[in-house]
Design a protein that fits this description.
Rossmann fold, 14 helices, 2 domains, 40% helix, alpha/beta
């Protein structure tokens, strides 16, 4: 048995996969604590883990982040990405580390397993000298000179001009993120850690082990990784959130294909994707199942067409086996859930990592990238017709789905983590007497 600390940023899209990981550790007999925000403490407690709430770190409401971080108000696209990283993810790092080190002082852990965007985890592991595991719940963002910067929605370059493009972009990104690097250096100093010459991108993954959600088929080809990477497939079982079925569920026609439209769980303005999807498909021979992304807000501020059905959340274990296509804002968990069922995608990625995810889906041949988070009805209709007419999208989605279904993500994280712990224990075990 090991004592395991799990750290997860308090966002629904982060909590779902880490909750599955926490449950797998508990089921394997390990003693588990989970460091997260107050909104999700009860969820982890229900799994048998001991919650450790944000205390020194400023807890926040994911649906009103600007109330805690005013610099994030009214930002979208690349500006939001940079501001989120600097103020929310980096700016809370030292305080997160302080909370975790205090918990370690109360009861030392054997290993810390963390959401890759939990910067305080890396500070705490460095301060305590304990092994750490990064669970990447978004596509890997480890850069390489062979590829464009991983935060940009660009495909691998071809030819000499493309390689020049990537060198220029990588250099430009270093300049663009200087403010983030200064904030990171300040957080290290506030944590009592020495300066480091390591590049900023190294701050977001453990030097010991990275368990990456997804499969290599969704990664751009490269010659290698600078750290140990283990792909573990999808992390959140599609049945991990089991809301009660909406009252219209039993009335869904059996003879019509279902198109699922999801706004995700962050930046859930229904005007961005749900409204144009209704306009595009409201007269088509399909049933539209739309989710607002909020269980407490299942209604829309505009009427739905007769063939549409709306809920805050739906049970994916019930919905996805019946779904013909998904129109999504590009959340990684939802994308992997769809692909695990062989469902082709139309992706409208507008914010944070969503444009990158959309580009990867299109590159892999499993869907269409609308190249905007606010598509027009015409663009959605055109993409849906193309998806329906070309069987290669569904064939490729099913190929990737077979790879995803070959994994048991949460249990694989446990197995890889415990192998790391045993290697560390062996290194510190006294040599047998002669």
């Amino acid at each position: 048995m090991a004592d395991v600390m799990i750290a997860v940023m308090p966002f629904a899209g982060h909590v779902a996969p880490l909750a599955a990981v926490a449950e797998a550790f508990v089921e394997a007999g390990h003693r588990v604590r989970v460091y997260t925000g107050r909104a999700y403490a009860d969820r982890f407690a229900a799994l048998g883990a001991e919650p450790v709430r944000w205390s020194a770190a400023p807890d926040f409401d994911e649906h009103d982040i600007a109330a805690t971080f005013p610099a994030l108000r009214d930002r979208k696209g690349p500006r939001q990405l940079l501001a989120n990283v600097e103020h929310l993810f980096v700016g809370t790092g030292a305080a997160q580390g302080d909370d975790l080190v205090a918990a370690y002082g109360q009861r030392p852990w054997d290993v810390i397993v963390a959401d890759g965007l939990s910067l305080g985890t890396h500070f705490a592991a460095e301060r305590t000298g304990t092994p750490s595991v990064t669970v990447s719940i978004v596509p890997l963002s480890i850069p390489t000179p062979e590829l464009p910067p991983p935060i940009l929605p660009l495909r691998p370059a071809r030819g000499p001009l493309g390689r020049i493009r990537d060198r220029v972009l990588n250099s430009t990104l270093t300049l663009t993120t200087r403010g983030i690097k200064r904030a990171y250096d300040a957080q290290r100093a506030a944590s009592g850690l020495p300066p480091t010459d390591a590049p900023l991108d190294a701050a977001w993954h453990s030097p010991d082990l990275v368990c990456a959600s997804g499969v290599p088929e969704l990664e751009f080809p490269r010659s290698g990784w600078p750290v140990r990477i283990e792909f573990v497939g999808a992390l959140a079982p599609t049945g991990s959130i089991r809301p009660d079925p909406p009252d219209w569920w039993a009335r869904l026609p059996e003879d019509r294909p279902i198109v699922h439209v999801t706004q995700g769980t962050l930046n859930v303005d229904p005007d961005d994707l749900i409204r144009p999807a209704f306009a595009a498909l409201g007269r088509q021979p399909v049933s539209i199942v739309a989710t607002t992304g909020r269980a407490d807000a299942p209604d829309l501020p505009f009427p739905a067409p007769p063939n549409a059905h709306v809920a805050g959340l739906v049970d994916y274990a019930e919905l996805l086996p019946r779904t013909d296509a998904m129109i999504t804002n590009g959340g990684w968990g939802g994308v992997l859930a769809a692909l695990a069922h062989g469902i082709p995608l139309i992706v409208a990625g507008g914010d944070i990592d969503k444009p990158v995810i959309a580009a990867r889906v299109a590159w892999a041949g499993a869907g269409i990238d609308l190249r905007t988070g606010t598509p027009s009805p015409r663009a959605i209709l055109r993409a849906w017709r193309r998806l329906s007419a070309d069987p290669s999208y569904r064939e490729r989605a099913e190929e990737i789905g077979r790879e995803l279904r070959a994994h048991d993500g949460p249990r694989e994280v446990v197995a890889h983590t415990m192998a790391l712990v045993e290697r560390r224990r062996a290194q510190h075990r006294p040599a047998p007497a002669a």
